[in-house]
Amino acid sequence: MRWEWMAPLITGVSGVAGVFFTWLTGAQGRLHTERMVSQSQQAEQRAHLLKERRDAYFAVMRAAHLELQRLEYKRTAQTSKLHELEQYWTTERRIEMSADALIGLFTFGSDEARGFIYEWREATDSDDLGRMNDLADRFRALVKSELKIE
Q1: Mean pLDDT, residues 138-146 taken together
Q2: pTM for this structure?
Q3: Distance of CA 118 to CAs 31, 86, 121, Å?
Q4: What's the confidence (pLDDT) of residue 51?
């Protein structure tokens, strides 16, 4: 009689321990799942922002290249190529493209990339082709380093 209570007690303690560890395993599983979902969402957001930054930088580079081409044709008196370029890329289209590039750059670009625009404006206002080429090269290098392009 002395030991009759021992079996139900051990069974009860084992049952409580089993329930506790089952709950603990489920809780850990839920926490792990939440962490994985959170990490996945963060990675997806980083990838989206990187794509937006890349697109903004490419728009700036496209606008800069077009302006460099236009100025080069003008300087070297290649009037037929200049006329062809300006016929396809009208002033309105170039302004629209530059505005889109600026919006993208100021929305998604780094501070260093935004600083490029102010220097670029000074160079384009003075039609300094050498400085514009240098700035375009520097911007290209900045884009490569920020986007980890080799």
Answers
A1: 92
A2: 0.73
A3: 48, 24, 5
A4: 92
